[in-house]
Amino acid sequence: MPEAEFESVWSDLQGVTFSQGYLDAGGVRTRYLHAGDTDKPVLVFLHGSGGHAEAYVRNLEAHAERFSVWSIDMLGHGYTDKPGHPLEIGHYVAHLISFLDAVGAQRAHISGESLGGWVAARAAVDHPERLDRLVLNTAGGSQADPEVMKRIITLSMAAAEDPTWATVQARIKWLMADKSKDYDDIVASRQRVYRQPGFVSAMRDIMALQDPQIRARNLLGPDEYGSITAPTLVVWTSDDPTADVAEGRRIASMIPGARFEVMPGCGHWPQYEDPKTFNRLHLDFLLGK
Length: 289
What we know:
Elements: H1 9-13, E1 18-25, E2 28-35, E3 42-46, H2 60-64, E4 68-72, H3 89-102, E5 108-113, H4 115-126, E6 131-137, H5 146-161, H6 165-175, H7 184-194, H8 199-206, H9 212-218, H10 222-226, E7 232-237, H11 245-254, E8 259-263, H12 270-273, H13 275-286
Parallel strand pairs: 3-4, 3-5, 5-6, 6-7, 7-8
Antiparallel strand pairs: 1-2, 2-4
């Protein structure tokens, strides 16, 4: 049996010209990872609920040749400022637009996973003039599944309230199709995020969208999806724990002219589990191939 290879965030970034830092986005101190020349078209990656910029460590290098690539800690997440109130989609969208302003991007490609996809889609509805191309990657926001919502709350709050190796690893493994791997480096990165003072309260604010009433007023329906004018790619997976392929196809069917792709053998993080396939599909779409 071949020896398991240790998967390191640092190894993913070795040899990549990138920077990590903070900038002011509308008064919000916002953490980012950046790669690529700043005179190139802007691409922003948005992670999921309770996540952070490292969700895209395996995608920076492939995109940096053609784009100015930003992976950010979204509002209330990671090391970005925590506003101290329940977070709804409008709050995230406002922060995203402020971030685009801060980096001087009149227009940008926005690619979001899970919550990030929900935010990206809403931004495309509300601010069509700011989007070039849109990628919805196992995106949330189209439905309210009580069992999934309960599971997200249970796993996320357990990890935030008692960020042991086991609780944080359980939250990470839930995202992945391959449960045999330990994802040590991602677990260590997230454990450090969750151990920040006050993060339990921040996680409660993040979990607001799992509340049925709050979620209901933030959901996107046929009218919203149907109004999206940006060229759109919807990426789904064979083993997504939040919704099946049919839901991804339904989302794509509501967006005029959307392209739909299914990645086999992946869960909620296809950009991490199969970066080679994701990067190829993603780049082909962004480059209009």
